[in-house]
Design a protein that fits this description.
With 432 residues, this protein is of the alpha+beta class. It is 23% helix and 34% strand. The chain has 9 helices and 24 strands. The strands form 3 sheets. Strands 10, 11, 12, 13, 14, 15, 16, 17, 18, 19, 20, 22, 23 and 24 form a 14-stranded mixed sheet that branches. β13 (256-259) and β14 (265-271) form a beta hairpin. The chain is globular. The termini are far apart. 31% of the residues are buried.
Length: 432
């Protein structure tokens, strides 16, 4: 064990040294010294992301034959179940005639997969290489997929309009059940919400989760330039920012890319109208925004669709099935399309290599969190979202390592805040 520990420390030292060297090389070429290397967009960026690896469910709940419910956010399990569903999905996908509401927790012998936010059903079928029926328009959304073993059907649930689109689950369902029961799958007991909460299930007990540490990498400005600009041969340094250490690039069309030296924040602005969308072959906000994300390849790590509106999509890094929250856009990419413009904000710093850690954090159950919020004066009706996430924290020993700490997050007034930050704001009388 001592030898293993020494090897880990030695490897960590080498990786930190390499990261420091690369960061020094990057920033010695910043500001007025920038000369964008000519790279044609036709030279495809290696390992482009695939949409079906980003627009994935992030939660799974299994409903056993006794009526008990078990939650998992294990990424490999969710990916396996998603793959099985599309391989076994029937060709026809009619809308159910009755506009009834399905309560998955009442259907024994089933499981449901949940997206982080509502998503276009047509787009989801398209990226998973399934034919899109003509009656499913691009504005039809869903958030949950219910699979019932009692009638062998797959249900795509549109909660907003109480519509359900269903198709057959083909083949032997026992093979799907075997994946659920596979040894090593960790499930947490959950229950149906006792009150009107923006969550599908409550954690019945306190939850123990690991803390994580990751070596971080600073992505070069050229990576973002190649990913965001149409043609990097037409990109040049912005002379108005010669004296600054910040990276500032632009093109003749007025597109700009700015990278902040102190924080690593990345901001991109460019024209994006109907003509541009036709050129790219995109048709929805999901396709428009994913066009820019896919070009970053694997540089941003494991990233998932987190939230979407008609004009904006947020993507976040996920660790062990939980989203990362941070300051200055770290672990996140926000892309908005408005007034014939596309705006992107993200960060140069990305998590890369996990460092072994045995530290754990105990988080209180859902009902205890709700009780705390109510005692602080928050009305349950004002809570727009409630979930566990990992907070990006600076490591106290080195800037080349980041700590990820699990805690509860609450969405109030369209903004996600940690429970600790909400408590501090309420104590100071902010946001009342």
């Amino acid at each position: 064990m001592k030898l293993i520990g020494k090897l880990i420390r030695y490897t960590l030292f080498l990786m930190i040294a390499l990261s420091l060297f690369l960061s020094w090389k990057l920033w010695t070429n910043s500001g007025s010294k920038i000369e964008e290397q000519p790279v044609n967009k036709s030279e495809q960026i290696a390992n482009m992301k695939q949409p079906k690896d980003v627009f994935l469910p992030v939660k799974l709940v299994y409903h056993d034959s006794k009526g008990d419910h078990y939650y998992s956010s294990k990424e490999s399990l969710i990916q396996s179940m998603s793959k099985e569903l599309f391989e076994r999905m029937g060709d026809e996908l009619p809308v159910e005639k009755s506009r009834k509401k399905i309560d998955p927790h009442l259907i024994k012998g089933s499981f449901d997969l949940s997206m982080s936010s509502s998503l276009s059903l047509a787009y989801y079928l398209k990226i998973n290489e399934k034919e899109v029926p003509s009656h499913i328009k691009k504005d039809v959304t869903f958030r949950r997929i219910l699979v019932s073993f009692s009638d062998n059907h797959i249900h795509f649930i549109d909660n907003e309009n109480n519509q359900i689109y269903q198709t057959e689950l083909l083949g032997d369902p026992s093979e799907v059940k075997d994946i659920l029961r596979k040894e090593g799958n960790r499930f947490l007991p959950v229950d149906n919400p006792k009150m009107d909460l923006p969550v599908y299930y409550e954690f019945k007990n306190d939850i123990t989760l690991k803390k994580y540490s990751y070596i971080v990498a600073t992505q070069s400005y050229t990576m973002f330039s190649k990913a965001f600009f149409d043609d990097t041969q037409e990109v040049f340094s912005n002379d108005d920012h010669k004296a600054s250490k910040n990276v500032s690039l632009m093109n003749a069309e007025g597109g700009t890319l700015d990278i902040m030296y102190d924080t690593g924040e990345v901001r991109f602005n460019s024209r994006f109208d109907s003509e541009k969308a036709r050129d790219l072959g995109t048709d929805t906000i999901y396709e428009d925004t994913f066009f820019y994300l896919k070009n970053t390849g694997n540089a941003l790590g494991t990233i998932r669709y987190f939230e979407g509106t008609p004009n904006r999509v947020t993507y976040r890094n996920y660790v062990e099935g939980y989203p990362i929250f941070s300051d200055n856009g770290k672990g996140r990419m926000d892309i908005s399309r408005e007034n014939k413009n596309i705006r992107i904000s993200t960060n140069q710093e990305t998590i890369q290599v996990p460092i072994p850690s045995e530290e754990e954090v105990v988080l209180e159950s859902t009902d205890k969190i709700i009780e705390k919020l109510q005692l602080k004066g928050i009305d349950v009706k004002d809570i727009q979202g409630l979930q566990i996430g990992y907070t990006w924290e600076a490591n106290q020993e080195t800037k080349q390592v980041v700590d990820l700490v699990p805690e509860w997050y609450i969405k109030l007034k369209d903004k996600w805040e940690s429970l600790s930050d909400v408590s501090k704001m309420l104590e100071k009388g902010v946001g009342e």
